[in-house]
Amino acid sequence: PDPDDLSKVNTSKFSDEQKDDYIEKLKDENARRRIATKKEKDRITKQETVQTEANAKLEDLKTKLADYEKKEKDRTDAEKSAMEKLSTQIADIEKSVSEKDTEIQKLKKESAGKDLKIEKSNRERMADRLVHSLSIEFTSEYERAGFLGELMEKDGDEFKLNDEEVILKVQKFSETRKKEPPKTPGPGPKNKGSEVPLVEEVKQLMSKSDLTLEDRKRLKEIQSEMIKERAQGV
């Protein structure tokens, strides 16, 4: 097998060194996928810099106009003309600044949404490939969904575990599973009819790009049930 191929190849014959290299490549791949959103953020930052300069110019023009207005009685025709010109400039800049503010806010919102989707996709890919590369066998889809759900758990918009912590958690689970092979039928409900709906519900929740407070609450409830039943061997 080629360790440079990050698709779902059979990595069961990889040496420990190849598996370590595979894991490093997974982390590098995640970093590359984040570069796109960083470039987009840089573009937004540049637009915000231009916007700051426009606001500074606007304030300067308003100051000049205020100075002219103080000399109302002694105003010359040239100053009156300058005031009219300043008023027009101010109105044009205010309109431009307002439109640009709206555009920047829209870009920020879109960028934040893309960030969430990319981070979710990164985490799913990493978790799935780590489990595959370490040849971890689960006793049921119920157990698998519960374990992957723990890796996907969030605190607000951020994952509770970073990439390194995910790798360590999966490696630890793999070592524990090797030392203590699962019993048959193993953790998870014996009634497959009750297992499938929960697994499907987890999949449905995790497919969302942005979980609501109620979604997170329900996911925690399901994960707690899974963890409890795995521990009890129900």
Automatic annotation (TrEMBL):
Positions with biased composition (Basic and acidic residues): 14-27, 171-182
Keywords tagged on the record: Coiled coil
Coiled-coil spans in chain: 51-124
Coiled coil recorded as keyword: yes
Region described as Disordered: spans on this chain: 1-27, 171-198
Protein name per the record: Uncharacterized protein
Native species: marine sediment metagenome
